[in-house]
Amino acid sequence: xxxxxxxxxxxxxxxxxxxxxxxxxxxxxxxxxxxxxxxxxxxxxxxxxxxxxxxxxxxxxxxxxxxxxxxxxxxxxxxxxxxxxxxxxxxxxxxxxxxxxxxxxxxxxxxxxxxxxxxxxxxxxxxxxxxxxxxxxxxxxxxxxxxxxxxxxxxxxxxxxxxxxxxxxxxxxxxxxxxxxxxxxxxxxxxxxxxxxxxxxxxxxxxxxx
Length: 210
What we know:
6hp_glycosidase-like_sf; globular; mainly alpha; LanC-like protein 3; LANC-like; 8 helices
């Protein structure tokens, strides 16, 4: 199979950072930015709807990433505990989502929330990380129909591409194969479905244009 990527012709940057980009300068800016965000993030379940892109769950994702950086080791425990509180509320909202198709959305729905919850729980050393992980795994059934969404079954925000992206992130961050056996074969099927959908869309555009 051909590798589908863009080759980077440039060498790694070997210069020095500008004075305004030093660690001593950047770290306080990041800490201040995080504090500013946390003062505005909702702490009640009634305000925790939305996904990683448009809801408080995105703040939990931010806290997870900051906590993974060694420069913020002193804030790690606090950030992860705060992230857990936010993602737990977001997961409750995702569980109550009436549109089951939206639960498979990575950036706008439950799939992204469950994936981030699993990563946060794992970083906290909680064995319960398998619970949101299991919720994520179960969503492949939603993505199985070739056209399960009218707005685009293969796109990143709510479609199969987003679900596959989340599966890849989980594999990278958790260090384990998120899905195996029958579910892994479904991932391959998703790739085939994506190709089929794009071919179908291409023919549709041709019929409209001509």
